[in-house]
Amino acid sequence: MYFESLAAAWHMDGHGGYVWMAYALTTMAVVLMVWLPLARFRRHLRWVSAHQLRQAGDSQL
Amino acid sequence: MRGMWAFIHKLGSPPWFFGFSGTLVRWLLPVTVLLLAVGAYWGLLVAPPDFRQGNSYRIIYIHVPAAVVALAGYYVMAIAGAISLIWRIKMADVAMRAAAPVGAVLTAVALVTGAIWGKPTWGAWWVWDARITSMLILLFLYLGVVALFEAYENKTAAAKACAVLTLVGTVNIPIIYKSVDWWYSLHQPASLKFTGESAIDASMLYPLLVMIGAFYLLFAMSMLLNMRAELLWQHRNAHWLRQRLDVS
Predict the structure, then answer these.
(1) Fewer CB within 10 Å, N- or C-terminus of chain B?
(2) Contacts of B193 (CB under 8 A, 6+ apart)
């Protein structure tokens, strides 16, 4: 590690605020890039299984 | 050669692609997370500071990968758009539209991290510089493809319009690349070069390469996840899909 302590890594000679803010925002963007399509996939999956159940119910009538 | 054509042919088949992409994503997810973690740790805490910019330069490890992949992603979207226009392959439409939101997020990341880097380095969050303005246009092109598709009732016409917009927007890509050379610009010229020596020391270069690799994988994974969600919806009534999902 380049920094001598965690406090020094946090402060980064006055640039810490900029650097950590950039990384925090990017982390949020990365999580969204994976989570949003996965959530959409699961939503469609729920529709498909609900529809399948409805069809199964209809055929029994 | 024959094997490659057979593979390309299979890519156009939704049932095959759905299975293949599912396996691929399961591998891509852990590898991408690992590379992102290693690259971020290396760049943030291990690499030495820049002799002129100090520690603020550490933003390069997310700024440059996001920008590089946002540009490469536009090529992916444009090629898919061209295939969709010429050969009317539906899977190409799906690929084109799946690339757009991912490219938009990456372009936004490049712009926002660039603004945060600009403040301590140039003294301003934003300047109307050639490189930055052309990247902003890239963001609007990506968002334009997303919005244009939603605006049409007829989805075949929508895909066609999006493909045309995508191809017209390709003009912007070489402008972005060359903007730092063509105009007097605040933005520094490229640190990485395909030919000749890079203007960056190995201790700073390796974590950057790791992060660029990680962002490429991230793009691929997010695009595949988008494609899978879209295929699931388009083929929700198809027999193969119900069999595959085994929801009964």
Answers:
(1) N
(2) B199
